[in-house]
Amino acid sequence: MDGILQRTKGDKVIWTIVVFLSLVSLLAVYSATGSLAYREQGGHTEYYLFKQLSVLVMGLLIIYFAHRVNYTVYSRAAQIGFIISIPLLIYTLAFGSNLNEASRWIRLPVINLTFQTSDVAKLAIFMYVSRQLSKRQHVITDFKKGFLPIIIPVGIVCVLIMPANMSTALLLGASCMLLCFIGRVPVKYLLSMIGAGVGLILLMFVFAKITGIKMRTETWAKRIEHFTNNEDSETPYQVQQANIAIAGGGLLGKGPGNSTQRNFLPHAYSDYIYATIIEEYGIFGAFLILMAYMLLLLRSIRIFRQCPYAFGAFLAVGLSVTLVIQALTNMAVNVGLFPVTGVTLPLVSMGGSSVIFTSFAIGIILSVSRNVDELEGKRIEQERIAKVMEQQNMQTA
Protein backbone atom coordinates (compact mmCIF):
# COMPACT_ATOMS: atom_id res chain seq x y z
CA MET A 1 0.00 0.00 0.00
CA ASP A 2 2.83 2.38 0.87
CA GLY A 3 4.43 1.60 -2.50
CA ILE A 4 1.25 2.55 -4.35
CA LEU A 5 0.97 5.82 -2.43
CA GLN A 6 4.59 6.65 -3.18
CA ARG A 7 4.00 6.03 -6.88
CA THR A 8 0.87 8.18 -6.87
CA LYS A 9 1.94 11.47 -8.39
CA GLY A 10 0.28 14.46 -9.99
CA ASP A 11 -1.74 17.33 -8.58
CA LYS A 12 -2.74 16.46 -5.00
CA VAL A 13 -5.69 18.87 -5.12
CA ILE A 14 -7.18 17.01 -8.10
CA TRP A 15 -6.71 13.70 -6.27
CA THR A 16 -8.54 15.21 -3.29
CA ILE A 17 -11.39 16.37 -5.52
CA VAL A 18 -11.70 12.87 -7.01
CA VAL A 19 -11.94 11.29 -3.53
CA PHE A 20 -14.42 13.94 -2.36
CA LEU A 21 -16.74 13.51 -5.37
CA SER A 22 -16.53 9.72 -5.04
CA LEU A 23 -17.65 9.90 -1.41
CA VAL A 24 -20.48 12.26 -2.36
CA SER A 25 -21.49 9.82 -5.09
CA LEU A 26 -21.73 6.91 -2.64
CA LEU A 27 -23.85 8.89 -0.18
CA ALA A 28 -26.14 10.36 -2.85
CA VAL A 29 -26.60 7.14 -4.84
CA TYR A 30 -27.33 5.11 -1.70
CA SER A 31 -29.95 7.62 -0.62
CA ALA A 32 -31.51 7.96 -4.08
CA THR A 33 -31.71 4.23 -4.81
CA GLY A 34 -32.79 2.80 -1.44
CA SER A 35 -36.47 2.46 -2.35
CA LEU A 36 -35.66 1.38 -5.92
CA ALA A 37 -33.35 -1.36 -4.69
CA TYR A 38 -35.91 -2.53 -2.16
CA ARG A 39 -38.54 -2.96 -4.89
CA GLU A 40 -36.31 -4.43 -7.59
CA GLN A 41 -33.83 -6.47 -5.52
CA GLY A 42 -36.14 -8.09 -3.02
CA GLY A 43 -35.35 -5.90 -0.03
CA HIS A 44 -31.61 -5.66 -0.65
CA THR A 45 -31.42 -1.86 -0.23
CA GLU A 46 -27.61 -1.77 -0.49
CA TYR A 47 -27.53 -3.36 -3.96
CA TYR A 48 -26.90 -0.15 -5.92
CA LEU A 49 -24.56 1.16 -3.24
CA PHE A 50 -22.23 -1.83 -3.68
CA LYS A 51 -22.60 -1.62 -7.44
CA GLN A 52 -21.60 2.05 -7.45
CA LEU A 53 -18.77 1.32 -5.02
CA SER A 54 -17.34 -1.30 -7.36
CA VAL A 55 -17.56 1.11 -10.30
CA LEU A 56 -15.85 3.89 -8.35
CA VAL A 57 -13.08 1.56 -7.19
CA MET A 58 -12.57 0.55 -10.81
CA GLY A 59 -12.52 4.25 -11.72
CA LEU A 60 -9.82 4.97 -9.12
CA LEU A 61 -7.72 2.12 -10.50
CA ILE A 62 -8.15 3.51 -14.01
CA ILE A 63 -7.06 6.95 -12.81
CA TYR A 64 -4.01 5.46 -11.12
CA PHE A 65 -2.83 3.41 -14.11
CA ALA A 66 -3.69 6.15 -16.63
CA HIS A 67 -1.69 8.73 -14.69
CA ARG A 68 1.34 6.40 -14.58
CA VAL A 69 1.48 6.38 -18.40
CA ASN A 70 3.48 9.16 -20.04
CA TYR A 71 0.92 11.46 -21.64
CA THR A 72 2.82 11.48 -24.96
CA VAL A 73 1.53 7.92 -25.47
CA TYR A 74 -1.99 9.35 -25.69
CA SER A 75 -0.91 11.45 -28.66
CA ARG A 76 -0.20 8.28 -30.63
CA ALA A 77 -3.43 6.69 -29.38
CA ALA A 78 -5.56 9.71 -30.34
CA GLN A 79 -5.79 8.86 -34.05
CA ILE A 80 -6.62 5.21 -33.33
CA GLY A 81 -9.32 6.24 -30.87
CA PHE A 82 -10.88 8.64 -33.37
CA ILE A 83 -10.91 6.03 -36.15
CA ILE A 84 -12.51 3.44 -33.84
CA SER A 85 -15.17 5.85 -32.55
CA ILE A 86 -16.65 6.51 -36.02
CA PRO A 87 -17.88 2.94 -36.75
CA LEU A 88 -18.95 2.63 -33.10
CA LEU A 89 -21.21 5.68 -33.41
CA ILE A 90 -22.63 4.47 -36.74
CA TYR A 91 -23.32 1.04 -35.27
CA THR A 92 -25.04 2.65 -32.28
CA LEU A 93 -27.37 4.65 -34.52
CA ALA A 94 -28.28 1.55 -36.50
CA PHE A 95 -28.38 -1.20 -33.89
CA GLY A 96 -27.96 0.45 -30.48
CA SER A 97 -30.25 -0.10 -27.51
CA ASN A 98 -33.11 2.40 -27.38
CA LEU A 99 -33.80 4.63 -24.38
CA ASN A 100 -36.54 7.25 -24.72
CA GLU A 101 -36.60 6.70 -28.51
CA ALA A 102 -32.84 7.28 -28.74
CA SER A 103 -30.09 4.80 -29.64
CA ARG A 104 -27.29 5.65 -27.23
CA TRP A 105 -26.05 2.32 -25.93
CA ILE A 106 -24.48 -0.81 -27.34
CA ARG A 107 -24.22 -4.13 -25.57
CA LEU A 108 -20.98 -6.11 -25.70
CA PRO A 109 -21.53 -9.82 -26.29
CA VAL A 110 -20.32 -12.51 -23.89
CA ILE A 111 -19.72 -10.10 -20.95
CA ASN A 112 -23.19 -8.52 -21.45
CA LEU A 113 -21.90 -5.01 -20.68
CA THR A 114 -23.60 -1.88 -22.04
CA PHE A 115 -21.87 1.45 -22.57
CA GLN A 116 -22.46 4.76 -24.32
CA THR A 117 -20.33 5.06 -27.44
CA SER A 118 -20.53 8.86 -27.15
CA ASP A 119 -18.28 8.56 -24.05
CA VAL A 120 -15.63 6.84 -26.18
CA ALA A 121 -16.01 9.42 -28.93
CA LYS A 122 -15.73 12.39 -26.54
CA LEU A 123 -12.48 11.17 -25.05
CA ALA A 124 -11.05 10.27 -28.46
CA ILE A 125 -11.95 13.57 -30.12
CA PHE A 126 -10.44 15.67 -27.35
CA MET A 127 -7.16 13.79 -27.55
CA TYR A 128 -7.28 14.13 -31.35
CA VAL A 129 -8.02 17.87 -31.29
CA SER A 130 -5.27 18.44 -28.71
CA ARG A 131 -2.83 16.57 -30.95
CA GLN A 132 -3.83 18.53 -34.05
CA LEU A 133 -3.69 21.89 -32.27
CA SER A 134 -0.19 21.17 -31.00
CA LYS A 135 1.05 20.04 -34.42
CA ARG A 136 -0.51 22.91 -36.40
CA GLN A 137 0.33 25.94 -34.27
CA HIS A 138 2.56 27.30 -37.03
CA VAL A 139 -0.34 27.26 -39.55
CA ILE A 140 -3.25 27.67 -37.13
CA THR A 141 -4.45 30.89 -38.79
CA ASP A 142 -4.63 29.18 -42.21
CA PHE A 143 -8.20 28.01 -42.88
CA LYS A 144 -7.32 25.02 -45.08
CA LYS A 145 -4.08 23.86 -43.50
CA GLY A 146 -4.74 24.76 -39.89
CA PHE A 147 -8.47 24.91 -39.17
CA LEU A 148 -10.20 22.38 -41.44
CA PRO A 149 -8.09 19.34 -40.39
CA ILE A 150 -9.10 20.09 -36.79
CA ILE A 151 -12.77 20.95 -37.19
CA ILE A 152 -13.84 18.34 -39.76
CA PRO A 153 -13.33 15.38 -37.35
CA VAL A 154 -15.20 17.33 -34.65
CA GLY A 155 -18.09 17.91 -37.05
CA ILE A 156 -18.24 14.24 -38.04
CA VAL A 157 -18.42 13.06 -34.43
CA CYS A 158 -21.02 15.67 -33.44
CA VAL A 159 -23.23 14.83 -36.44
CA LEU A 160 -23.13 11.12 -35.58
CA ILE A 161 -24.00 11.77 -31.93
CA MET A 162 -26.69 14.40 -32.62
CA PRO A 163 -29.63 12.21 -33.79
CA ALA A 164 -29.62 10.22 -30.55
CA ASN A 165 -28.21 12.71 -28.07
CA MET A 166 -28.49 16.37 -29.03
CA SER A 167 -27.33 17.71 -25.66
CA THR A 168 -24.11 15.68 -25.71
CA ALA A 169 -23.38 16.74 -29.29
CA LEU A 170 -23.91 20.43 -28.45
CA LEU A 171 -21.74 20.24 -25.33
CA LEU A 172 -19.02 18.40 -27.21
CA GLY A 173 -19.07 20.96 -30.02
CA ALA A 174 -18.99 23.87 -27.57
CA SER A 175 -16.11 22.34 -25.61
CA CYS A 176 -14.10 21.75 -28.79
CA MET A 177 -14.76 25.33 -29.92
CA LEU A 178 -13.49 26.61 -26.57
CA LEU A 179 -10.38 24.43 -26.84
CA CYS A 180 -9.77 25.75 -30.36
CA PHE A 181 -10.13 29.30 -29.04
CA ILE A 182 -7.50 28.55 -26.39
CA GLY A 183 -5.37 27.07 -29.18
CA ARG A 184 -5.34 30.45 -31.03
CA VAL A 185 -7.81 29.51 -33.78
CA PRO A 186 -9.15 32.80 -35.26
CA VAL A 187 -12.53 33.79 -33.84
CA LYS A 188 -14.01 34.33 -37.33
CA TYR A 189 -13.47 30.64 -38.11
CA LEU A 190 -15.16 29.58 -34.88
CA LEU A 191 -18.14 31.88 -35.50
CA SER A 192 -18.54 30.42 -38.98
CA MET A 193 -18.66 26.91 -37.52
CA ILE A 194 -21.22 27.96 -34.92
CA GLY A 195 -23.37 29.34 -37.73
CA ALA A 196 -22.95 26.11 -39.69
CA GLY A 197 -23.99 24.10 -36.61
CA VAL A 198 -27.13 26.17 -36.10
CA GLY A 199 -27.97 25.77 -39.78
CA LEU A 200 -27.53 21.99 -39.56
CA ILE A 201 -29.89 21.77 -36.58
CA LEU A 202 -32.53 23.78 -38.45
CA LEU A 203 -32.13 21.51 -41.48
CA MET A 204 -32.72 18.46 -39.27
CA PHE A 205 -35.99 19.96 -38.02
CA VAL A 206 -37.09 20.75 -41.58
CA PHE A 207 -36.08 17.30 -42.85
CA ALA A 208 -37.98 15.57 -40.05
CA LYS A 209 -41.03 17.75 -40.70
CA ILE A 210 -41.08 17.07 -44.44
CA THR A 211 -40.27 13.37 -44.43
CA GLY A 212 -42.02 12.41 -41.19
CA ILE A 213 -38.94 10.48 -40.07
CA LYS A 214 -38.64 10.51 -36.29
CA MET A 215 -35.33 12.06 -35.28
CA ARG A 216 -36.25 13.14 -31.74
CA THR A 217 -36.90 16.63 -33.07
CA GLU A 218 -40.34 16.62 -31.43
CA THR A 219 -38.72 15.81 -28.07
CA TRP A 220 -36.22 18.66 -28.48
CA ALA A 221 -38.96 21.10 -29.49
CA LYS A 222 -41.13 20.14 -26.49
CA ARG A 223 -38.24 20.58 -24.07
CA ILE A 224 -37.46 24.02 -25.43
CA GLU A 225 -41.15 24.92 -25.35
CA HIS A 226 -41.47 23.81 -21.72
CA PHE A 227 -38.34 25.69 -20.76
CA THR A 228 -39.61 28.94 -22.28
CA ASN A 229 -42.78 28.61 -20.15
CA ASN A 230 -45.19 28.61 -23.04
CA GLU A 231 -48.72 29.12 -21.74
CA ASP A 232 -49.97 26.12 -23.69
CA SER A 233 -47.29 23.80 -22.33
CA GLU A 234 -47.25 22.00 -19.01
CA THR A 235 -44.16 21.94 -16.81
CA PRO A 236 -42.49 18.50 -17.14
CA TYR A 237 -43.03 16.18 -14.20
CA GLN A 238 -39.31 15.82 -13.43
CA VAL A 239 -38.90 19.60 -13.34
CA GLN A 240 -41.79 19.92 -10.89
CA GLN A 241 -40.32 17.28 -8.58
CA ALA A 242 -36.82 18.81 -8.80
CA ASN A 243 -38.24 22.21 -7.83
CA ILE A 244 -39.97 20.66 -4.80
CA ALA A 245 -36.72 18.94 -3.77
CA ILE A 246 -34.71 22.16 -4.04
CA ALA A 247 -37.32 24.19 -2.18
CA GLY A 248 -37.31 21.64 0.65
CA GLY A 249 -33.52 21.68 0.98
CA GLY A 250 -33.10 25.18 2.34
CA LEU A 251 -29.68 26.31 3.51
CA LEU A 252 -28.40 23.15 5.23
CA GLY A 253 -30.81 20.53 3.88
CA LYS A 254 -32.80 17.76 5.54
CA GLY A 255 -29.77 15.64 6.31
CA PRO A 256 -28.22 12.53 4.69
CA GLY A 257 -30.82 9.95 3.65
CA ASN A 258 -33.80 12.17 4.50
CA SER A 259 -34.85 13.08 0.96
CA THR A 260 -38.54 12.62 0.24
CA GLN A 261 -38.55 13.54 -3.46
CA ARG A 262 -36.17 10.70 -4.30
CA ASN A 263 -39.29 8.51 -4.34
CA PHE A 264 -40.97 10.71 -6.96
CA LEU A 265 -38.15 12.29 -8.94
CA PRO A 266 -37.31 10.32 -12.12
CA HIS A 267 -33.62 9.41 -12.38
CA ALA A 268 -32.88 10.86 -8.94
CA TYR A 269 -29.68 8.78 -8.95
CA SER A 270 -28.34 10.04 -12.33
CA ASP A 271 -29.74 13.00 -14.29
CA TYR A 272 -31.31 14.64 -11.21
CA ILE A 273 -28.88 13.61 -8.50
CA TYR A 274 -27.90 17.24 -7.90
CA ALA A 275 -31.49 18.06 -6.87
CA THR A 276 -31.36 15.15 -4.43
CA ILE A 277 -28.08 16.49 -3.01
CA ILE A 278 -29.60 19.95 -2.57
CA GLU A 279 -32.60 18.51 -0.72
CA GLU A 280 -30.40 16.56 1.70
CA TYR A 281 -27.41 18.89 2.06
CA GLY A 282 -28.96 22.25 1.20
CA ILE A 283 -27.44 25.19 -0.63
CA PHE A 284 -24.23 24.73 1.36
CA GLY A 285 -23.73 21.19 0.04
CA ALA A 286 -24.62 22.27 -3.50
CA PHE A 287 -22.05 25.07 -3.26
CA LEU A 288 -19.32 22.61 -2.19
CA ILE A 289 -20.04 20.43 -5.22
CA LEU A 290 -19.91 23.44 -7.52
CA MET A 291 -16.63 24.62 -5.99
CA ALA A 292 -15.09 21.17 -6.41
CA TYR A 293 -15.61 21.29 -10.17
CA MET A 294 -14.44 24.90 -10.43
CA LEU A 295 -11.31 24.00 -8.45
CA LEU A 296 -10.70 21.11 -10.85
CA LEU A 297 -10.82 23.60 -13.72
CA LEU A 298 -8.49 26.05 -11.98
CA ARG A 299 -5.92 23.35 -11.20
CA SER A 300 -6.06 22.15 -14.79
CA ILE A 301 -5.49 25.70 -16.03
CA ARG A 302 -2.46 25.81 -13.74
CA ILE A 303 -1.18 22.60 -15.38
CA PHE A 304 -1.86 24.15 -18.80
CA ARG A 305 0.22 27.21 -17.95
CA GLN A 306 3.12 25.19 -16.51
CA CYS A 307 3.32 22.46 -19.14
CA PRO A 308 6.19 23.23 -21.58
CA TYR A 309 4.72 21.10 -24.37
CA ALA A 310 1.64 22.14 -26.36
CA PHE A 311 0.00 18.70 -26.56
CA GLY A 312 0.05 18.16 -22.80
CA ALA A 313 -1.20 21.67 -22.14
CA PHE A 314 -4.13 21.36 -24.56
CA LEU A 315 -4.93 17.86 -23.32
CA ALA A 316 -5.16 18.91 -19.66
CA VAL A 317 -7.28 22.00 -20.22
CA GLY A 318 -9.45 20.38 -22.92
CA LEU A 319 -10.45 17.36 -20.84
CA SER A 320 -11.08 19.46 -17.74
CA VAL A 321 -13.20 21.94 -19.70
CA THR A 322 -15.49 19.23 -21.04
CA LEU A 323 -15.94 17.68 -17.57
CA VAL A 324 -16.71 21.03 -15.95
CA ILE A 325 -19.09 22.11 -18.74
CA GLN A 326 -20.93 18.80 -18.38
CA ALA A 327 -21.16 19.29 -14.61
CA LEU A 328 -22.39 22.88 -14.91
CA THR A 329 -25.00 21.80 -17.48
CA ASN A 330 -26.30 19.06 -15.19
CA MET A 331 -26.54 21.52 -12.30
CA ALA A 332 -28.25 24.12 -14.48
CA VAL A 333 -30.85 21.56 -15.62
CA ASN A 334 -31.50 20.48 -12.03
CA VAL A 335 -32.16 24.04 -10.85
CA GLY A 336 -34.21 24.97 -13.91
CA LEU A 337 -31.71 27.20 -15.74
CA PHE A 338 -31.43 24.89 -18.80
CA PRO A 339 -33.95 22.73 -20.66
CA VAL A 340 -34.16 19.07 -19.67
CA THR A 341 -31.26 16.97 -20.97
CA GLY A 342 -29.82 13.54 -20.29
CA VAL A 343 -26.45 14.85 -19.07
CA THR A 344 -25.10 13.27 -15.88
CA LEU A 345 -22.96 14.74 -13.10
CA PRO A 346 -19.37 13.48 -13.63
CA LEU A 347 -18.12 11.06 -10.96
CA VAL A 348 -21.28 11.61 -8.88
CA SER A 349 -24.21 10.21 -10.89
CA MET A 350 -24.72 6.46 -10.81
CA GLY A 351 -23.36 4.82 -13.92
CA GLY A 352 -20.81 2.50 -15.41
CA SER A 353 -19.36 3.74 -18.67
CA SER A 354 -19.65 7.43 -17.73
CA VAL A 355 -17.64 6.91 -14.52
CA ILE A 356 -15.04 4.79 -16.33
CA PHE A 357 -14.41 7.27 -19.14
CA THR A 358 -14.52 10.23 -16.75
CA SER A 359 -11.89 8.48 -14.65
CA PHE A 360 -9.77 7.88 -17.74
CA ALA A 361 -9.96 11.59 -18.59
CA ILE A 362 -8.91 12.59 -15.07
CA GLY A 363 -6.10 10.05 -15.20
CA ILE A 364 -4.78 11.68 -18.38
CA ILE A 365 -4.92 15.13 -16.73
CA LEU A 366 -2.95 13.76 -13.78
CA SER A 367 -0.47 12.18 -16.21
CA VAL A 368 0.26 15.64 -17.62
CA SER A 369 0.49 17.01 -14.08
CA ARG A 370 2.93 14.26 -13.06
CA ASN A 371 5.15 15.05 -16.04
CA VAL A 372 5.09 18.76 -15.22
CA ASP A 373 6.04 18.05 -11.59
CA GLU A 374 8.90 15.78 -12.66
CA LEU A 375 10.27 18.41 -15.05
CA GLU A 376 10.00 21.04 -12.32
CA GLY A 377 11.76 18.73 -9.88
CA LYS A 378 14.60 18.13 -12.32
CA ARG A 379 14.94 21.87 -12.92
CA ILE A 380 15.13 22.58 -9.19
CA GLU A 381 17.66 19.77 -8.70
CA GLN A 382 19.82 21.09 -11.55
CA GLU A 383 19.72 24.58 -10.05
CA ARG A 384 20.71 23.16 -6.65
CA ILE A 385 23.62 21.22 -8.13
CA ALA A 386 24.75 24.27 -10.10
CA LYS A 387 24.62 26.39 -6.95
CA VAL A 388 26.63 23.82 -4.96
CA MET A 389 29.25 23.61 -7.71
CA GLU A 390 29.45 27.38 -7.86
CA GLN A 391 30.04 27.54 -4.09
CA GLN A 392 32.75 24.84 -4.30
CA ASN A 393 34.49 26.73 -7.12
CA MET A 394 34.44 29.92 -5.07
CA GLN A 395 35.92 28.10 -2.06
CA THR A 396 38.62 26.50 -4.26
CA ALA A 397 39.50 29.87 -5.77
Automatic annotation (TrEMBL):
Q: Which GO terms describe its biological process?
A: cell division; peptidoglycan biosynthetic process; regulation of cell shape
What does the record give as EC number? Answer: 2.4.99.28
- Molecular function GO terms recorded: lipid-linked peptidoglycan transporter activity; peptidoglycan glycosyltransferase activity
Subcellular location(s): the record lists: Membrane
Catalytic reactions of this protein: [GlcNAc-(1->4)-Mur2Ac(oyl-L-Ala-gamma-D-Glu-L-Lys-D-Ala-D-Ala)](n)-di-trans,octa-cis-undecaprenyl diphosphate + beta-D-GlcNAc-(1->4)-Mur2Ac(oyl-L-Ala-gamma-D-Glu-L-Lys-D-Ala-D-Ala)-di-trans,octa-cis-undecaprenyl diphosphate = [GlcNAc-(1->4)-Mur2Ac(oyl-L-Ala-gamma-D-Glu-L-Lys-D-Ala-D-Ala)](n+1)-di-trans,octa-cis-undecaprenyl diphosphate + di-trans,octa-cis-undecaprenyl diphosphate + H(+)
Looking at the UniProt entry, the stretches that span the membrane are: 13-36, 48-66, 78-96, 150-182, 189-208, 272-297, 309-328, 348-369
A cellular component term (GO) from this record?
Answer: cell division site
Signal peptide (residue range)? none
Entry annotated with the keyword Amino-acid biosynthesis = no
Is Cell cycle one of the keywords?
Answer: yes
Q: What InterPro entries has UniProt attached to this entry? A: FtsW/RodA
The way it spans or sits in the membrane comes to: Multi-pass membrane protein
Q: Which keywords label this protein?
A: Cell cycle, Cell division, Cell shape, Glycosyltransferase, Membrane, Peptidoglycan synthesis, Transferase, Transmembrane, Transmembrane helix
Q: Which family does it belong to?
A: Belongs to the SEDS family. FtsW subfamily.
The protein's name in its UniProt record: Probable peptidoglycan glycosyltransferase FtsW
